[in-house]
């Protein structure tokens, strides 16, 4: 039987997904998805792959959270304090040599 992490890795190799979609596809809670993504970020490296994160963007001022190191969603924009934030998308790709 495949583990949740294997399922998430397979899903993210097919197309980019937000955490809510991963949660719906796997039947686990969103906060559990974050825990798995934190692990997957490191574990896929050994398989020559990389977890790509399309950064969250503030929909009020277009601020990009691209320098953000943590995987969890930002709550509000540090620039305009807005809370309309497009969620980050995650995908897994082979590292091209
Ligand atoms: Zn903003």
Outline the fold blueprint.
Elements: H1 4-14, H2 19-26, H3 30-43, E1 49-54, E2 57-58, E3 85-86, E4 89-94
Antiparallel strand pairs: 1-4, 2-3
Helix pairs in contact: 2-3
Bound molecules: zinc ion.
Main beta sheet: strand number and arrangement? 2 strands, antiparallel
Class by helix and strand content?
Answer: alpha+beta
Q: What is the CA–CA distance across the termini? A: 32 Å
**Any guess at the CATH architecture?**
Orthogonal Bundle
Assigned CATH class: Mainly Alpha
Total beta-strand segments: 4
Radius of gyration: 14 Å
Query: Can you list the strand order of the major beta sheet?
Result: 1-4
- CATH topology type: Arc Repressor Mutant, subunit A
Overall shape: globular
Query: What pattern of helices and strands is seen along the backbone?
Result: HHHEEEE
Our count of domains comes out at 1
Count helical runs: 3
Low-confidence segments, given as residue ranges, are none
Helix fraction bin: 25-40%
Bound molecules: zinc ion
* Percentage of residues in DSSP E strands: 15-25%
- Calculate the mean pLDDT score and round it: 92
Could you describe the 3D structure shown?
With 97 residues, the protein is of the alpha+beta class. The chain has a single domain, classed as Arc Repressor Mutant, subunit A. It is built from three helices and four strands; from the N terminus they run H-H-H-E-E-E-E. It has helices spanning 4-14, 19-26, 30-43; strands at 49-54, 57-58, 85-86, 89-94. The strands form two sheets. It has a two-stranded antiparallel ribbon. Strands 2-3 form a two-stranded antiparallel sheet. Helix 2 crosses helix 3. The longest helix is centred in the middle third of the chain and has 14 residues, at 30-43. It is globular, with a radius of gyration of 14 Å. 16% of the residues are buried. The structure holds zinc ion (ZN). Zinc ion binds next to loops.
């Amino acid at each position: 039987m495949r583990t949740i992490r294997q399922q998430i890795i397979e899903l993210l190799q097919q197309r980019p997904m937000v955490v809510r979609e991963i949660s719906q596809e796997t039947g686990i809670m969103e906060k559990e998805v974050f825990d798995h993504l934190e692990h997957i970020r490191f574990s896929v490296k050994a398989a020559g792959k990389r977890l790509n994160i399309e950064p969250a963007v503030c929909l009020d001022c277009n601020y990009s959270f691209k320098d953000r190191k943590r995987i969890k969603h930002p709550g509000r924009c540090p620039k305009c304090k807005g809370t309309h934030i497009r969620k980050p998308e995650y995908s897994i790709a082979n590292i091209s040599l």
